[in-house]
Amino acid sequence: MRAPFALVLCTTLLAPPAQAEIRAVIVGVSDYLTLDADLKGPANDARLMAETLIARGVSPAAITVLTSDPTDLPTGITTGQPTRAEILGALETATEASTKGDTVVFTFSGHGAQAPDLSGDEGGGYDELLLSADATGWKGAIGSVENAIIDDDLQAWAQATLAKGIQVIGLIDACHSATGFRAVGGQGVAKVIDEAQLGIPDDVVPVAGTPAPPLSGDFVFLYSSQSDQRSFEYPMPDGTWHGEFTLRLAQTLRAAPSASWAQILSATTEAMVQGPARQMPDGEGPLLTAQVFGTGPTTTRFPLEAGKLAAGLLDGLTEGAELTLFATPTGGDPLATMTLTNVTAREATLSAPPPIRAQWAELTSAPAPAPLTLAAPVLADPGDPHDYSAWTAALPEPGATPDLVPILTDDTLALAGPDGTLDPQGPGSTPRLRLEPGETPADAVERSLTQAAHGLAIRKTLAGATGRSLTGKAPLAVTIDRRAAVSCDQPGPATPFDPDEPVAPCDQLWLTITNASGTAQDVSVLYFTADFRVQPIYPTQNLSNRLAPGETTRIGLQIEPDSTAGLEEIWTLAVPATPDAPRVDLTRLATNDTTRATPPDPMTAWLEARLDPDATSRGFTLKPAPLTMLRQVLRLTPGDPPPDPTMEN
């Protein structure tokens, strides 16, 4: 596998739980000491979250609530004011009191903002801020908003906490949009402050630099809205104000004791769509699919809308997939089992009208992969003395237009391309079938052909997905640096990648990806190996992969030490972000358990349907492509990896 070892900088903070001690720092900033930016809901949000965590079994003694209004809080908790010093101090105290396996929960309700990044560690050029009660305005001497908590502060705390083996959970009800206040329906208020109040000079220019390394450990962050959206608070019928996200999140946490954080996020989002403002929550982190305050992964459920499944090809679903329907986003009794009959990008049709109570669907099984067509086997060397009868008996009947040509060589089976050329890139560059422990030749053939069928189908579909636009401009700009390996543990200096120069085992490749378009893009990176595997590179661990216009991320991968010669490819994929829709993560396409296309390939049908028929015949389209694919071919050299200097005498 081409191992990814660097991802995107986490936007802000934190992560999830285990069956050990749980400590919480809950912040609600309603009253600002200097800024004219008071809110009505955060103090109530802090109270509600404290009550919710206690109902989930967290001890009051392990909860610190920092709020502008500490009245009516549950007994036994620690209280304080939501100033910068007290917030960071409470987080440090929670970390110091925790040990490996414990969990620290951080919740924040209040104003968010942005400020130019003067440290150069932000891909987008701006620091995200959470405004504590004593936040004032821009101070040139420190290059930031005084007393604000920036994402750098939170990342430093989170990484130190994660390094101790402590899980971190972040629940953030604030937004970082640069827009000002806006009322909704005469009642709702956006929880973002006007930049003018912060006094950020117009001539302050963000500093370009190297993005900070990503967080490492067990964490999950839930955010109240997308990075380009506002987060709102509203009054309840009794006049009590709450943040929409906090209110729905608390209700869901109480109602779903065994759900995963992803299911909690889905159910919270479903409840929020009834509100008067469009606000799409987001989530990221390796424990997004883990059980809330528990262990182990859980199964994703997809929502039903107007009798159709609100998920499709971009979620790894294909025609013929079988799903079980439920009334709730987690738990509950099965209501029906149905298959998908028509699958598009983000929507799928069920084989029959679903029961009235059905609101969610869970993938039960995927259809079998489409078989490859093989040529008749060819003996590479007529004088080869080996017995290949077991290999030839395991092969399917040859077809008229083969996808691959089986070649009998080296006492095994090689799978060459349609031209039947053996080892075109050097000895061993045509993939050989190797018997895994306990396998027979028939087992190896079945496994390898299934893998190849999936990889080649995905490659063909994605490679044909992008037409040429009239402007010729791709939404992404990608540059690649190569670090030739001194040893497998020691990369050399970075040099611009030259596609005419081969790469070798243990070399590192670094991609710098910039959103050069005017709209947000959901970015995924896959790797296609010489033996037809599709491997996920970015994103991993459920981290956010949405790049705002102008934003940059840096991704690294390393060539396996045991790699052989051959042509391999890096695929950088971009899908335009759809307003009020979840992020699109195409790394799920790398798993043939959930993406098994049956003829005709539904992904190809979807892509063709999005292209203008007239424009297609000319080779370009006036419409924006639903998917952008940038391919970079690598030529791997054969041979052993560099020696390890530590093993030399």
Number of helices: 10
Oligomer: single chain
CATH architecture label of the largest domain: 3-Layer(aba) Sandwich
Secondary-structure-based class equals: alpha+beta
Q: What amount of the residues lies in strands?
A: 25-35%
Q: Helix amount, in percent?
A: 10-25%
User: What's the Cα radius of gyration?
Assistant: 27 Å
Outline the low-pLDDT stretches.
Answer: 3-18, 177-187, 467-471, 593-625
The shape, in one word, is globular
Mean pLDDT: 77
The N- to C-terminal Cα distance equals: 30 Å
How many domain regions? Answer: 4
CATH classification, class level of the largest domain: Alpha Beta
- How many strands, which pairing sense, and closed or not: the largest β-sheet? 7 strands, mixed
| CATH domain topology of the largest domain | Rossmann fold
Count of beta strands: 35
Main-sheet strand order equals: 4-3-2-5-11-14-17
Explain this structure:
With 649 residues, the chain is an alpha+beta fold. It has 4 domains: 10-284, Rossmann fold, CATH 3.40.50; 301-365; 378-456, no CATH class; 458-645, Coagulation Factor XIII, Chain A, domain 1 (Distorted Sandwich), CATH 2.70.50. It contains 10 helices and 35 strands. The chain has a 7-stranded mixed β-sheet, sandwiched between helices. Strand 21 and strand 22 (348-350) form a beta hairpin. Helix 1 (42-55) runs parallel beside helix 5. The longest helix is centred in the last third of the chain and has 23 residues, at 441-463. The radius of gyration is 27 Å and the shape is globular. It starts with a strand and ends in a 13-residue tail after the last strand.
